[in-house]
Design a protein that fits this description.
Blueprint (H helix, E strand, L loop, with lengths): L5 H8 L3 H11 L5 E2 L5 E2 L2 H15 L4 H4 L4 H12 L7 H11 L2 H15 L1 H21 L5 H20 L11 E4 L8 H12 L4 E3 L6 H11 L3 E5 L6 H14 L4 E5 L1 H5 L1 H4 L4 E3 L2 H8 L2
Parallel strand pairs: 3-4, 3-5, 5-6, 6-7
Antiparallel strand pairs: 1-2
Helix pairs in contact: 3-5, 6-7, 6-9, 7-8, 8-9, 9-10, 10-15
């Protein structure tokens, strides 16, 4: 059984922590366990209960009325809502596919989103929040590393499939090079950057995961890119990160350096002047689409 903190519950349910506290105090919705230091902790059952309450609330039921219902009545109302074909249960389907390693359910649900919104909006509005939820569930041992890898690779495959549908630009001048540094294998974000740039007609050269530094420099000298984009998620020492970009700036003079990921965000002040941070899709496109 997982133990969730209130911040974990906020991410997983989409209900603000402040709102959860109000529901607990005003309506007695939940009585969470508390640690010796009075920090709230929640169980898997509490999470499921709040997800059901959130679903009812989103469908017009006042929280004051929901609080008066028995657990059986709540389950029945949730079931009735789920039987309505017009209701969107995308988040629930994605989580269910994760828990049961159901490739068919996941790919069909994701494809419906992409057909409706396109990959760019789907990634920002649905996949990023979903990946945040996966991260929380993995940290509290609610899912295994294998389940996380299973879903991450399905997402990776879908982005690659969408890239494959794009037209390869005929203008090969001023290419943009994308890569992951050595020992970093988390390429979902970088693949999405590749998709966005290709969708805007940019010529990109994608070098993939865990690229040794010497190979990177060799490619830079041969391809002469206009810009280089990397992503840094794997934990790394700050001195190494600073040294890496100082060295790259020296070895690739005149090339614009961009990078995103948790390690770049964490060390952004120290990296100022060495590399331009990419915070999201909007900031990426703002740098390249004029």
């Amino acid at each position: 059984m997982a133990d969730y903190k209130i911040k974990d519950i906020e991410i997983l349910t989409g209900i603000k922590a402040h709102t959860i506290r109000i529901w607990e105090k005003r309506y007695g919705i939940l009585i969470p366990e508390r640690t010796d230091t009075q920090i709230r902790t929640y169980t898997d059952q509490d999470l499921s209960y709040l997800l059901n309450i959130s679903l009812l609330n989103k469908n017009g039921h006042k929280i004051s009325k929901i609080a008066e219902l028995s657990e059986q009545e709540i389950h029945q109302m949730v079931w009735d809502i789920k039987m309505q074909r017009t209701v969107d249960f995308t988040e629930e389907k994605l989580i269910l596919a994760l828990l049961h390693s159901d490739e068919t359910l996941f790919t069909e649900t994701l494809q419906v989103l992409i057909d409706e919104k396109g990959l760019a909006r789907t990634f920002s509005e649905d996949l990023i929040p979903f990946l945040d939820r996966i991260g929380v569930m993995w940290l509290v041992n609610s899912i295994s590393a294998a389940q996380e890898h299973f879903i991450s690779n399905l997402i990776r495959q879908k982005i690659i499939s969408e890239i494959d549908k794009q037209v390869i630009p005929t203008d090969k001048s001023f290419p943009i090079m994308l890569y992951l540094p050595e020992h970093d294998w988390h390429e979902i974000g970088l693949l999405f950057y590749q998709y966005l740039l290709r969708s805007k007609g940019f010529h990109t050269v994608y070098l993939g995961q865990s690229l040794p530094y010497d190979s990177l420099i060799d490619c830079i000298q041969r391809i002469q890119p206009k810009a280089i984009i990397s992503s840094w998620l794997t934990a790394i020492d700050k001195p190494f990160l600073l040294s890496y970009f100082k060295r790259l700036k020296k070895d690739a003079p005149g090339v614009d350096l961009y990078a995103g990921g948790a390690q770049i965000n964490l060390n952004a002040p120290d990296l100022n002047g060495l590399v331009t941070e990419i915070k999201n899709a909007e900031s990426l496109l703002a740098h390249f689409v004029k």
